[in-house]
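Shift notes (night). Ran DUF2231 domain-containing protein while the centrifuge was going.
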Amino acid sequence: MVALSRPDYLRHLHPLHAILLAFPLPLFAGALASDFAYWSTFQIQWANFSSWLIAGGLLVGGFALLWALINLFRRGPARKGRLVVYFVVLLAMWGLGLINALVHAKDAWATMPEGLYLSAITTLLALVAAWIGYSGFHTREFRTGEVR
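Came back to this:
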């Protein structure tokens, strides 16, 4: 008998949750890029762009965080390990994003370098959350001829 592996889609993201999870990474990455642009040019409009991109990332990321919290309570206790890590990463992303928004609410000159560092960390956390969220399926081995 040959052992094959096939994806088991028991722990996939709901399509709406996947759409909500798709937004924070590019919004926070855009904020990081505009922070780099402000750091190199000191044109105030780049700091304004960052503020708006962070606000968008927080808005949509908040809904993704809420969805992850609901999923955490809907699953049985045996399958919560990955969901807890996913929720904690999303919560850290949202919390640092909120602190980043407060830093960017200051005068544009006063946002550097803290705003740049917070944008980099928030972008990294958004990448990790997307990685965990979208790689939610796992493979399970079964033998040919086995009925599932």
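The chain has one domain: 3-143. The chain has a mean pLDDT of 87.
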